[in-house]
Each structure stands twice: as structure tokens, then as C-alpha cells.
Design brief:
507 residues; alpha/beta; D-Maltodextrin-Binding Protein, domain 2; 5-stranded mixed β-sheet; 15 strands
């Protein structure tokens, strides 16, 4: 996932004056203009470069054929990516919604299709079962499914989703497809069942981030950019964060114990969920994959050290994790009682724009400075895409074609609007804010552990890391040994299921 849209937007703002100045040239200069065929012609004006490729679908017209998306509207457990896929179905003056409407209208006209939507309104714990039942019942009237990453990963192992590996319609070389994420979610070589890209915008909106009260950092360190500098220098580590937490705690109410009346370094809701993006950010290699096998790979010193560091942070004097729910958490943050707020997503940035202090958005910290880069994870309710396995032949070609054009138009039309209006990049304090969002964007991954933990008996996250952390009993070796036998059986069974699905898809 290597795009630089937010940085581009920031750069565009700075470049506007220069472009305006250039437009005032008289045209006396003779410069070269590139044509679509790669030729150069003399224009007698300043250089104009055409980079747009010929539309390989220009002659495609389906004559009003219906393209149906099975889209989630679960507003309880999921992040509800329906607003990026269907929108309201009309203009309402809200920039992101209107961009969705424009995109859908354009793709309908380009391909000669009717876009229709079927609502999937059930919580994410039941999503995989409900989707499976409907596929088993026959040929569902959907061309594409948009739903939770965990739900789709669960049914991908059982042959319910189409294999899109090696198709010549989806252009995975384009940055509107997040190819690294899709590779990460693949189980065996030659099998790709889960789609992550700009069309499934919720994957971007729901990635995990930290929010920081920069005013408090300035009070402590006399530097608003104290943490930002560490991030950009590659020095933002979990040890540095823990140090800040301990230096930030104040017994504000003077009762001699940690209470909701004190000031803290880090606040979250519970330890289980909020610890996941922190843990993923520490670069644990959960599995080793070859073309035809998957093996657990995290029984090592790095995992032990990561769990120890996670324990030090969550049981730090400067951490509070008992705030009840997200509403209470955000109130605590707005009340200027904490430096860092966890368990929020990038798409929440606009909802926090009324905060009355200098606020920054940050990636989760590294394990140490030697870690190559920051790792930003998706929640298991982040909505991605897939195609039912019952979609074959010309219908599969139709579905892939519509998806490719929708992804392309989303990348060029919707995503820039989402950055500017949905994430409020235009309200950022400066270039550093745009650069930070850009850095977070480029560090997003779809981790294997998040997608397949439940499929593998909760071995990757819950059993070995999160439950011991929550009970303040982090004996990694004991937890690992307790569950490895049953986990290996599930891994073997799941691998065999994927082999069968792969064989079936390549007949």
C-alpha cells in the first residue's frame, strides 16, 4: 500500500501559487509535449505532460446489466463501509457522499451498468455463517461481497470465494489495489480470495492510530513536535512511549492512588482490543509461508520480549484502561487528562476536529529503532471485498471488470476527497500533519494474525498474548505450550481446506 495522497495534497497547496505564476507566461518559449503514444511535439507553450493511459475498457458496454454488491450496514460491530460503496444514492452536500455518488454515476455510464445493493445487516460474529449459508443455498444475486475481514477470511478457507489470483482484469500493479495486503492475507501460493483496495475505502478509514495531545507534550518537554520528530526519525519505539507515560502521570486529585480524576500518559478501553494494534506494531512474524505450506513462527525471543514490553506499557503508572467505552475515552481525552488515546481509527480524525487543543495523529510505536518501519493494522471488522465462488465464466469476467473500473475511479475521484474532507487534511496545522497521515497510510497492512486468529482457535493473538496480558500473568512459554498442539491441528486442517479450494478453483 504505497501511495502518497496526503503528502500530495499538502504539496498541491504549496504549489498553487507557483502554478498560477507559471500560467501567466506569454507562450514565447517552445517546449515539448508528450502525446499518448509517447511522441513529443512542439507546442510553443510551457510543457504539458499527459500521463493518462488509454482506457482498456473504453469499448465495453454491458447494455444495462446489473452489478450487485452485497454490502454491510451493521452499525454496531462493524465500521459500516456502505457509506463509501453506496452512499446515500443522491447528492446531499456532504463532500465524501457526493464523491461516492459521482463515482458510481460515472462507472455506470462508462460500462453501461446498473449498480444495485443488497444489505447485509447482522453483526460481525454471525457474518461468515450468514454469507456461507446463502452461497450454499444456490447462486446468490451478488457479484461482489463487501464485509468484515474476519468473516471473509473465515469462509475463504472453505471454497466459498472465487480465486482471483493471476486474472488479467484486475491490475494489481496499480496503487488503487493494496497488493501487499492481499498477499499477506493469502494462505497458499496461487490462491487469492480477499480483495483490499481503494474501492473498499473502509480499510483505510478503519486502520488503527494513536491520537496525541501535543499541548501536554509541549508543557512537559517544551516542544509540540516532541513525538513527531521521533516518528519521522524512526525513533518512535514502545520503550519511548512507556517513558513518556511514566513522566506524564499526575495524582491530580491527590488521593494517593490511580483514579479517573488523575492525569495519564495513555488511555484506552480495556486491554484486549486496544493491545492488538500495539502488538502488531511490534513486528511479530506469526507464520512462515511457502507456496504450499504454512507454519507457526513466533515461538522465539522476539515474541517474549514484545509481550514483556507490552506488559510494561499497559501496567505502567501512566496508563488507564478502565474508561468503559469509546465515548468515555474521548471525553477523557477532550478533558485534557491524557497524552495518548488508543483504540481509535484514522477515519475518526474528522470526528475529533472540535478538540480545543493542539492534537496530532500517530502510528503505533516500533519494537526498537532497528525495526524497518511502522506497522499499522486493520481491525477485524474492517470491510474488504470478495467474489462468491458461484460467480464463474462470463459472470466472473463481468464482476472483475466492474470492480477494476470502480477501484480505478475511487482512487482518482473519491480518495482525494476523503483525505481532504473526510480526514480534514485541509485543516491540518502544517505539512507535518499531512506527512504523518501519509506515513500512517503507507504503513497499513492486513495482518494474517488479525484475519485468521479465530480460524486457528485464537492461538495467534488471544491465547498466547492478550489473555495473559489481561490477567497480568505473561508466561509466554506456558501459554504457547498449552495451545500449540490444538493450534497445529487446526492449522493442518485449514491448510488442507485451502488446498482443496485451490485445486477446485484451478480445474
Amino acid at each position: 500500500m504505497k501511495k502518497s495522497l496526503s503528502l500530495l495534497l499538502a504539496s498541491v497547496i504549496l504549489a498553487c501559487a507557483a502554478l498560477t505564476s507559471c500560467s501567466e507566461k506569454t507562450g514565447d518559449e517552445t517546449t515539448a509535449k508528450k502525446t499518448g503514444a509517447g511522441e513529443t511535439v512542439e507546442t510553443g507553450m510551457e510543457t504539458e505532460t499527459e500521463t493518462e493511459e488509454p482506457d482498456r475498457f473504453a469499448d465495453v458496454n454491458y447494455g444495462g446489466k446489473t452489478f450487485t454488491v452485497y454490502t454491510s450496514v451493521d452499525t454496531v460491530d462493524a465500521t459500516n463501509g456502505d457509506r463509501f460503496i453506496r452512499g446515500t444514492g443522491e447528492y446531499n452536500g456532504e463532500a465524501v457522499n457526493d464523491a461516492v455518488y459521482d463515482r458510481n454515476l460515472k462507472v455506470s455510464d462508462l460500462l453501461g451498468i446498473n449498480l444495485e445493493y443488497v444489505e447485509a445487516n447482522y453483526n460481525y460474529n454471525d457474518a461468515s455463517n450468514q454469507i456461507k449459508i446463502q452461497i450454499q443455498a444456490g447462486d446468490p444475486a451478488w457479484d461482489v461481497i463487501a464485509n468484515d475481514i474476519r468473516a471473509l477470511a473465515t469462509i475463504s478457507a472453505n471454497g466459498f470465494l472465487a480465486n482471483v489470483y493471476g486474472n488479467d482484469i484486475l491490475d494489481f500493479s496499480k496503487d488503487y489495489w493494496y497488493t501487499d495486503s492481499m498477499d499477506n492475507l493469502s494462505f497458499l501460493g496461487g490462491g487469492m480470495y480477499l480483495l483490499v483496495g481503494d474501492y473498499f475505502t473502509d480499510a483505510l478509514a478503519s486502520c488503527h492510530t494513536l491520537y496525541a495531545n501535543e499541548a501536554i507534550l509541549n508543557n512537559i518537554y517544551n516542544d509540540y513536535e516532541y513525538v513527531n520528530k521521533m516518528v519521522f526519525d524512526g525513533k518512535w519505539t514502545i520503550d519511548e512511549m512507556t517513558k513518556i507515560l511514566n513522566e506524564s502521570y499526575k495524582d491530580t486529585d491527590g488521593d494517593g492512588k490511580k483514579t479517573n480524576g488523575d492525569d495519564y500518559g495513555y488511555a484506552c478501553v480495556g486491554m484486549w482490543g486496544p493491545a492488538i494494534p500495539m502488538l502488531i506494531g511490534l513486528d511479530i512474524n506469526f507464520v512462515e509461508k511457502t507456496a504450499d505450506s504454512v507454519q507457526f513462527a513466533f515461538n522465539n525471543e522476539h515474541s517474549i520480549a514484545a509481550l514483556d514490553k507490552l506488559h510494561d506499557l499497559y501496567y505502567s503508572e501512566g496508563t488507564i484502561s478502565s474508561l468503559g467505552d469509546v465515548t468515555g475515552l474521548r471525553s477523557f481525552f477532550a478533558n485534557k487528562q491524557v497524552v495518548f488515546m488508543g483504540y481509535n481509527r484514522l477515519g475518526d480524525l474528522a470526528e475529533l476536529r472540535d478538540i480545543e487543543f493542539e492534537m496530532g495523529v500517530l502510528p503505533y510505536p516500533k519494537f526498537d529503532e532497528n525495526q524497518e518501519g511502522y506497522i499499522t493494522t486493520l481491525h477485524d471488522t474492517s470491510e474488504i471485498g470478495a467474489i462468491p465462488s458461484t460467480t464463474v465464466g462470463d459472470n466472473l469476467t463481468f464482476a472483475l471488470t466492474c470492480l477494476e473500473v470502480l477501484a480505478r475511479e475511487t482512487g482518482s475521484k473519491l480518495i482525494p476527497v476523503f483525505y481532504e474532507d473526510g480526514l480534514k487534511v485541509k485543516y491540518a496545522d502544517g505539512l507535518d500533519d499531512a506527512k504523518m497521515i501519509d506515513l500512517i497510510h503507507d504503513s497499513i497492512t492486513s495482518p494474517f494474525a488479525v484475519a485468521y486468529d479465530s480460524t486457528l482457535g485464537n492461538f495467534l493473538l488471544r491465547n498466547v498474548f492478550l489473555d495473559p496480558l489481561g490477567s497480568n500473568n505473561i508466561n509466554f512459554a506456558s501459554s504457547y505450550d498449552k495451545f500449540i498442539k490444538s493450534a497445529n491441528k487446526l492449522l493442518e486442517r485449514t491448510t488442507e481446506s485451502f488446498r482443496s479450494a485451490l485445486e477446485e478453483s484451478t480445474k
